[in-house]
Each structure stands twice: as C-alpha cells, then as structure tokens.
Amino acid sequence: MKPAPFRYVAPRTRAEALDALRRYGSDAKLLAGGQSLVPLLAMRLARPGIVIDLNRIGDLAYVRPARGGVAIGAMTRQRAAEDDPLIASRYPLMVAALRWVGHPQIRTRGTIGGSLAHADPAAELPAVAAVLGARFVLANARRERIVDAADFFTGYLTTALGPDEMLTEIRLPPPPERTGWAFTEVARRHGDFALVGAAVLLVGDGEGRCAEARLAFAGVGYGPVRVPEAERALAGERVTEALAAEVRRIVSRSVEPEGDIHATADYRRHVAGVLAARALIEAASRLEVRT
Amino acid sequence: MGTRYFGEPVRRREDPRLLTGRGTYVDDVRPPLLLHAAVLRSPHARARISRLDASRAAAAPGVALVLTHADLPPALREPLPRLIPHPALVHHKTQYALAPGQVRHVGEPVAFVVAESRYQAEDALDLIDVAYEPLPAVTDLEDAVRPGAPLVHDDMGTNVCAEYTQRVGDPDAAFAAAPHVFRERLRMDRGAASPIETRGVVALWDAQTRELVVYDSTQAPIRIRNYLAALLGLPQNHVRVIAPDVGGGFGPKIMMCYPEELLVPHAAMRLGRPVKWIEDRRENFVSMNQEREQIHDAEIAVDADGRILAVRTRFLYDSGAYIPYGIIVPIVASTQLVGPYRIPNYECTFKAVFTNKVIVSPYRGAGRPHGCFVMERLMDRVARELGLDRAEVRRRNLIQPHEFPYDTGLIFQDNAPLIYDSGNYPALFARALELIDYEGWPAAQAAARREGRALGLGLALYVEGTGIGPYEGCRVTVEPSGKVYAATSVGTQGQGHFTSFAQIVADALGVDVADVTVTTGDSGAFGWGTGTFASRAAVVAGNAVALAARAVRDKALLVAARLLEARPEDIELAGGRAFVRGAPARSVALGEVAVAANPLRGTIPAEWEGPGLEASRYFAPPRGTFAAGCHAAVVEVDRETGALRVLRYVVVHDCGPIINPLILTGQIEGGVAQGIGNAFYEQIVYDPDGQVLTQTFMDYLLPTASEVPPVEIAHIETPSPLNPLGVKGAGEAGVIPVPATIASAIDDALGTRITQMPLSHQRLLELARRAPVGAAAGGAA
Lengths: 291, 781
Hints:
The complex is a heterodimer. Chain A is an alpha+beta fold. Chain A has 12 helices and 14 strands. In chain A, helix 11 packs antiparallel against helix 12 (about 265-285). The longest helix of chain A has 21 residues, at about 265-285. Chain B is of the alpha+beta class. Chain B contains 20 helices and 29 strands. In chain B, helix 15 (about 495-510) packs parallel to helix 16. The interface of A and B includes residues 3, 5, 188, 189 and 191 of A.
C-alpha cells in the first residue's frame, strides 16, 4: 500500500500555492490534513502527478471575527475550531457537529477546509455550512470569488472549485438572535461517517415560534441536503410533537439517498425523518422566549 | 518458601518495552542490503490465466526478481502442505505458493516481485501483464451446494469436500417420541481476525554457511521451521524461525504455510540478499485466512418441563477456496455446541464446502461461537415456547458438579474423547445471575419501558475445550549470575507469557520474578513444539515450564546440599538463595549453586543428570481440559434507528486456578470486544462475483472503545485434574458467547427472534419495525 510516484511541493505562502495550482491544475492534489487524501494515495485510488502540501503555509489557519460573524482559514484544524471560544459562542452547532467528526486524533490533523473541499456526502461539516449559510472564498492566482454553500457542493465528491482554485476561507454570517440548534447523527460506530446526520437551525421569533427553519442532512444525497418543504412547514410555527411528526414524514418522503453495504436507501430515508424530528425537538428546546 | 507469584496480578513485564515503542515486530527487522517484496493478487474470484508476462516488470527500475508459478522450483510448484488430515475430508485441497494457471479467490497470489523498495515493487506489479478468462464464481454457501453450482475445483464434481456426522444415543427415536420439538435456521457470517500487526516475513540467507534465518509474524515458528526445511531442501538445524513480538494472532497466524512464508525465504536464497514482505491492510482482507460462516438447521426436543431430550443440527461450513487446515473448525462447532447441558441424544452433521472466497481456518473461538449461538438460541426458544423462565430452563439442564468427569460421548478436535474434566456450572450461572441482578430485571425493564426505552437482558453459557496436545516443552537454566532463563516452544502474540511463565518459574526456584527471562517463539532457542492456538499455551506450555523449573529446583537442592553439607530435603530455595531449613545463615546464592553444578575439575554425580542448573521437560496432556463460563448483558435498542448500546456486560469465568488475574482480565476483555464486533459490526461482505467489498477499516468495522462497554468479571476456580498446575485455557473465553448473549438481550428488548449474526443498524431496525411494540421475550416470565 504505497502511493504511485508523484512530485511534491510544499509552498510557504498562499501565493506560492496558488502559483503551483496555476501551473499544474488538474494534475495536482492539495494536501491539507491528509485524512482522506493520504489513504487514497496509499491505495493508489488517487494518482496525482503532484501533491501540493499546504501545511507549511502560515496564514491559512485562523478564526477571526468578521463583520459580526467569523472567518475561518481553510487550514484551521477541526480540533482548533472545536476548541475556539469565538466559534463556541456564536456557532455552538458547529462545535456540536465537530464532535461527530472522527475522533480527536483525526480532528487534530483534519482541517475545516479539507473536509468541505473533499465534500464527502456523509460528512458533517457540509451540513453545518448549509444551515449556517456559510460562504466559501475560492482563490486562484489571479482573483478570488465567493460562493454560497448552496452553490459550492455540486455533486458526488465535487464542488464549485476549479482545477486551479483553492478554498482559502469559510465565512460564517452573524448568527441570528435567538436561535435554537441541534446536530445529531447515526453512524455505524462513533466517529464513522454518518449513515444519516441532521443539522437543524431555528431562528426564533421571541414568542417560541420559528421565524425561520433550516434543516440539512448528511448521508442522504451527494452534498448537504436541504428540505425546503420541511422548512416551509416550520416557518412561523411552534414546534410541537405533531409538527415534528409532520416534518419527519416530509423529510422521509423528500430525501433520495442511495444504499451501500452499511445501510440501504430505505434505512437512510427512514432514519433521516427520525433524526429530523429528534433534532427539531432538541433545537426548539433551545429557542429563547422573550421575557 | 518465598513469595508465591502464582495467582498474583503481576504487571506485564513486557509492557514498558512495548508501550514505549521498543518492541521488535517483523517490520522492525531491518538488516543491511534489504530488498522488499510485493505480491500481485488475483482480481477475480475464479478465472483461468491465459497469459502471464512479467518481462516488463522484471526490467523495471529497482526490480531484483519476479516470480511466477513457472519460475518456482518443483517443491514450491506443488499444492502446499495438508496440515490436519481427517478420514472424512475426502478432498483435502490446499493452496499454491503462486497460482498455476487458475485462480480461485480474489487475493490469490499470482506473481511475486522483489525490488530495492516496496514502492518500486508495487510499481512493478502494475507492469505485469496478466490475461484472465473470468469464470463463474460461487460465493454463497447455500448456492455452492446446489446442483449445477460452479465448481471451485473442477476435478471434484462437487463443492463439498467433507461430510461428517457424530451421534450420541438415539436422536431419531428421541425426536420421534418428544412432546415438543422446536426448529431454528441459524446463520453466522464471515469475519476477519484483523490483528493490529498484519502478516510479515523477513528472510536472511547466509550462502557461506547455508543457514536461513526467518522472522515471521506467526503463531507456530517451530512448525514453520519444519515446513521451510522440507520445502526448501535444508536440514532443520540450518533453519531458524523467529516469531519476534507479534501484534496479535487470533488464529489465522497458525497457518502453515502462507505462500509468502515460502516465497520470501526462497527469494532471499535466490538473491543472496535479505528480503522483507509486509502484508498491507488491504492485502490482509483478501489473503489472511478468515472464519465464521456457518448455516445451521438445528432442532431441539424437550419434555414439558423444558428438559432436553435431544438436539440435532445439520450445518454447512464455508471453507473458502482451499482447506489446508482441515475440518477443525466444524468439528469444534459440532462438539462444543452441547455446552454445559445434559443432552442424552445428540446428532451433528456438517458439510464442509468450497466457495470462491478467502481460505478459512480457525479464528479465536473457532466454531465455538457458532455452537454456543445455536445451543443458546434453542434454549431461549424452549423458554419462550413453554412459557418458562430463561434461567430456569437452563438451570434444569445443567450438568451437575457431581457428574464430573462427564463424558459427552463425542470425539473432540484432538481425536480424543470429549470428556469434561471438571467444572461447576450451577455455581457460575448463579453468580452471573446475581451480578446482572436477574431477579430485579423485570422491574428494571418495566421502568425503562415506561420511559420509552427498549432494554433487554441476555444470557448465554458455554464450555470451552482448551489445552489440547500433543505437547509443548521448556528448558529452564540458572546462570552463574543467578538469573534464570526459560525458553519455551510456543510463540506469544500478546498473551503475556513473558510474565505468566516467569511467575511459574519464580515460584519453583524461589527467585524474584524480575530475575526470570522468558524466551518464546524462537526455534533457535527451543526446537520442539507445536504452537500457540486453541487456548493451550498456559495449559500445555505452562505445565512444561513448571515441570522444567521443578526439575531444576530438584537439582539445585542436590547441588546445594553438597555445598551446605546438609540433606537435600533440608534445603529451601528463597530470595535467590539456597539455605538450610531453620538455619538461614547457612546459605548460598543460587548462582553459586549453578557454578558448582558445572565444575572445572572432578566429576558430576550421575544423579545430577548432566551439568549446570538446567533441565528440559515436556508436557503432553492425554486430552483437553474444559473451561466454562456465563455471559450476561443488558442492552438498549433504539427502535427508530436500530442503534444498539451495550449498557452492562458481565462475565463469570472458570479456567481453574488463575496464574495472573490481570492478564486473564485482558484476555477476557479483548475477547468480549471481538465478540461485540462479531455481533454487530464486523462482516466481510462479498458481492455475487466474489469481490470483497470490505477492504478497509472504513468498511470493515472493528468496535472501538466507544462501542465496547466496561466488562464486569468474576471468577470461580475449578482445578483440572489433568495437569500439574490444574489450569485451563482462557484465550477464547471472552469471544465465544457474545453473539448468543447479545441476541438473547435484543430478543428480550424487542420481542424479536434473532437468527443471524452479525446484526447491524439496518437489520436491527428491520427487526424492530416488525416486532410488536411493548413485547418482551422472556425475562422472568
């Protein structure tokens, strides 16, 4: 299990990395935390001509306040994000979801940007990005562009990233006042990719009702799957057992997962509904009511 | 006497070395000028090889040698050794070092490349030109016995290589007359042992002295030495096989020989340079032997009180593409099925069946988990059908303490009568029920149910045949320094022999356990033996260690008596010294006794039986000794997702006198973890074409610390009358009843009837959705 021959460069700056990408384009693979790429290389399932190692670039790992939200450098380790006080105070949903990502050892290597750019359909972070309304900064040697979460994930393990582009930053908008949130998932073992994962963000109206609801699922489609019908059903409503049951039915009816050796499509469809209802109840319990 | 170490929780003396990265595993053996090998493996489950051209690979950068079947010497072109023949095994087909024109499972070795680096060797694999003509494959066990199934071996005309029946009493008559008969079709799927260290071989050949040294991650270094000598045409005393630190064996490393174990030494001899091959994890999933697939059609006849009148099972045993190890696993399954119960009439028939899958040989449990699953499923069924309490049904059928030795009437895997030598099954069962609070269970379950939680309690009992022959040996030596060295014939794959055997020696010689160094797994240190398997090392090698240490002790008494001018019977050994009883001032260090036993002048008396404080002894038990236990668990099932949580796990275990309770706890906990894997996580998945869909640890799911609960362990100790230490084996105890226990618990939680292992989230959800809400299976009925 040794990789096929490849060239290796370890740029020291962002500009050098983008320059290397400009030159090698689709023949290149970016190495971030290596938690997916390195096994793929070792099994010779990925055979890039060149590996561009981002680990020596100093200014791609950061969490900083940005216009009431936060900006997260793409090379920020998942463990660092999980432990970051700013993220914890503004986006507790992200911290909750990160605890489902692998194990601490994996999160210590794995990066926020790496997971999002790899876009595994069963990964937790894309679902979080979807409900938080994350925006992705994509750079190449000449320019930067910004892509919404809804447009970033384009297919199975594919994203809006061009062959010469690198994800450099994830921007989270300011969290709405009075949110209720929950992340839950079912995996074969703790730390595995989700069979199904559910992220829920409710924006409260101060009276215990949802002004807005966002639901995204992992493991039931190629990217984070939103269920607009369920979100509409929740808008302006108070979350009750009956409404949660209704959402459960809508979700199970709406998602179109595929089966694999770990669970059939039917299983995932059923459990997506179950988790939707559970996450919804949990999120609603966190909604603050104006006193 | 000094301190007695036997029975003490002496901390494992090997752990500081292993935990700080100072172990020597095969991959840590790095001689100068080392070459690296890689294996080209079949991508097809069944195919003819119509063209095989390695010329481009041979010319690739760094490549030193490419081998195909045609390149091998005649002895290595033949099928590899038939290890354990049996009259019922009429088609004893064995694997090849390299495939001779036909492949029979994905992963079968086709070519072997040696290069300056593993990278180059793997690059060269890509350049070997093989044309396969794929043939229809058979992977499903039931399909394989249907008429017209593709044949794994064309010349047989069938895929059934053995059919064997054992019968006790008159089962036909008993079934015909029984008031109640219940039938189950029970199935266990295939898993993998998954040692943390995969297989690996390093061979060094000295062309001058014609001596071969092989480092091999094996459970049987001495037997590997013997086969290597025979197949490579060398005297046994020119071949030394060392199993250094081995990162887990669990059974599959008892094979003799895997192709690479021959190809690596052969290549080293051909090239005159050392060669290393380390199996990578993906290879491990298609080239290391696997186990567990059996399908049983079982039935039980009981009277109105649930007393067993007869049990019968007919089962299919999946052997994979070849059957080098013979029919040990199905024999163990057949004979251990009866467990701790009095079964007057019993019949067991199996068919061993070839399929186009990886070879099967024993994996920890080796048929016992299947037998236990069948028997315990039947017991739960009886309880449910007759409306009896699960524990009471078992209690009524247990063999009683006064019935030992208890002859089951069966013949065990060692070809000896299967006679339970000792045990106290009612006592261990009672203890398990007490620990799991069986009496309080109905209330606890009802309380949980009121909270909407589905909790279940499971029970299973088992008997484990351990400590079979033929023999093991040990040589114990006291050096002039006073340090003691013990060289044994077994290998060690984590069992703690460096500590437990040292405890036995230290007790016999009255020395500090830290002054005893144990060597295992080196045919150069001790050349006669069988290997570490079948929960036998502590019993068979452990007693050889005791006998050798006692012989040295007897001699030390003779020599010290002369030095101290006393009678031997008045000499005591303690604290590393020999002294006269009642006169501790008259003493001599054990090292000085060793010097005196090897004098420069004079002679040595005949009763010393040779020079030095040294003795070799062998222990050859007449038949196996039988350990037993009971597991009990409480599980919680999420009815909506099929998630399973094991909330409590209790093991009550009887392996006779305990040498070291810390080591025993580790054995049991590790076994339970593997059993939980077998019950809910681990499954090798083949598609209908014979492709393996689980070739990484992302797809083949080993339970982790998150999935394995703390294990609550209690012991009772019933000594074996069959060996001087009275000990019984414990290596497989943890794993055997876990699937049966978990199935019993899930049934109790959901009111289901589990018939298949392993389960998964999906299977459990399907079962839960079919089960009536609020139903409980048994409990205290």
